Task: structure prediction
Amino acid sequence: MPEIEIGGIKKVALDEDGYLLRYEDWDEDVARALAKREGLKGLTTDMLDMLRFMRSYYEKYRFFPIIRAVCKNVHKPKDCITESFIDPVISWKVAGLPNLGEEMDILEFGPPD
Amino acid sequence: MAKEMKPNEIIGSIDYNPPKTDWMSTPVQIKPGMFCWGAKAKSINTVGFPNARDWNPGEEDWKLPENWQGTVLEGIADRLKKYRSFRLFMDICVRCGACADKCHFYIGSGDPKNMPVLRAELMRSVYRRYFTTPGKMLGKLAGARDLDINVLKEWWYYFFQCTECRRCSVFCPYGIDTAEITIMGRELMNLLGLNIEWTMGPVAACYMKGNHLGLEPHTITSNIEFMLDDIETITGIKVNPSFNRKGAEILFVTPSGDLFADPGTYTCMGYLMLFHELGLDYTWSTYASEGGNFGFFTSNEMAKRLNSKIYAEAKRLGVKYIIGGECGHMWRVLNQYMDTWNGPADFLEVPKSPITGTVFENTKSTKMVHIVEFTADLIKNGKLKLDPSRNDHLKVTFHDSCNTARGMGFFEEPRFVAKAVCNNFYEMPEDTIREKTFCCGSGSGLNAGEDMDLRMRGGLPRANAVKFVRDKYGVNMLANICAIDRAALTTSMNYWVPGVGVTGVHELVANALVMKGEKPRTTDLRGEPLPNAGGESDV
Result:
């Protein structure tokens, strides 16, 4: 299983697709390390706001948020997720949200109907 | 896979020369990008279907049950008895070839086994071998062959390379419904646990939670609340829909995709705005929260089970009738199957528009009316105040969804509505619309991520027609009345015809709808500035 090292001390476990294994391991430093692993240049405060909103949404609804709802909630234009993270799946990963297997395709390619 | 393959590479790879070997002697090759992942044990177990296990179609061992041949042959025998159409379609094809080049998958792949005649022949050859005297006696001479593991894999591969769109049937001089052959093929696969996860996942979710996405009631209401918030931002009007309300006159059911992803959410905002403006006495349901029916891509029995909650909920809430949202296969199920599966719905009344008084006689047996028909009637009777210039930034064409077009003959109503709310409307070429419409390429539960090569190939003919009107008239918006279309065509347009967006018809309606007490609109439903709004910027 892959791991990421935070500040040279803490080690955080990921699954084979790069998703955080333990939801509660997430914090800002972990997010930065995940972002780096996903090839992002860094995380702005706006991006962190988006991630925090996605986590709070998940805690309550156990599902992917409407992407532009994330943006509206952090007062950004409706394509803020793809502008910042390229792919919504990357934002999901960096937010430390769980790997939902085949269901992840819903986030990337849209709903079944 | 198409993810890596560029459009011109796909086009360059299409070869219409058939292999040198005879089709029966050309073994199937299961190619990555052309198939969907096998259904997971968890999903199959949820609905109690046979042979639940995790399996990978790309591997040699499909973990089939013992005596699987016996199961399939028994399955065929049962269905030949049960469905006269099946026996007829097995017997009557004269292989004239009229259907051969009508399939979007054949056009986009050049694989002769995607010719509808040959796809059906994959099954007919086995039917002949076990169920007809010439086939039993003469074998290959009579076009018959044994059912072995390679034949089974070939069935699976090609019955999941058909979207059951029925374009080929339009050209068949015998009227053979090739979709029904695929439907039977998939039923037989289902007996062996050879489902695909992209349909079984949603089927299991729908069975447990009422919709394909598995949205729970509080998620549904929260998503709709988000849309209401957007509506208020754009129009200044607070819309207050109700959920699970007993005693409402009308139950509204739509595909769950409308509740979650763009551009479906804009269509959903369209429904909400229209119903609010009419003051319609209607309710949403968080139980019957799925109009679509992926059970239909699995087996008749599963489709019936999933469908049953619509009437059950209508009865529980005591509504008079049901309105259904914009969806394709949903309407094939509702229009052709629902009343005989789960009806008669004699506790409901024949739908009658409370605004115009029109009685929708055509829905007498199902008691469920299509929203576009409902809206077309409103417009025809002059009941909506419309400002089509609010759609002037759009040059619109209309994609007929296979199931509403060929399954219901629903050609005029969506065009009537679209033309009433848009000033710029252009048709695609005649052979690609109405009953001859080309599939989006991803219908019947094939709109997954892993089969993107297949989807983009299948989407090519439709995309090509869109490209024609984009280049000729500057079309920049592809309207449709199907949730699968809204998701699938978005991907396909980005790939083949960049610059063309995708919209539901009711998004266009809501853009044009002048609502009582609304503030001057500066943007459309997507937050894009309106053409005549004096250059005001995004909200």
About this structure: Chain B has 21 helices and seven strands. Residues 7-30+50-194 of chain B form one domain. The longest helix of chain B spans residues 452-473.
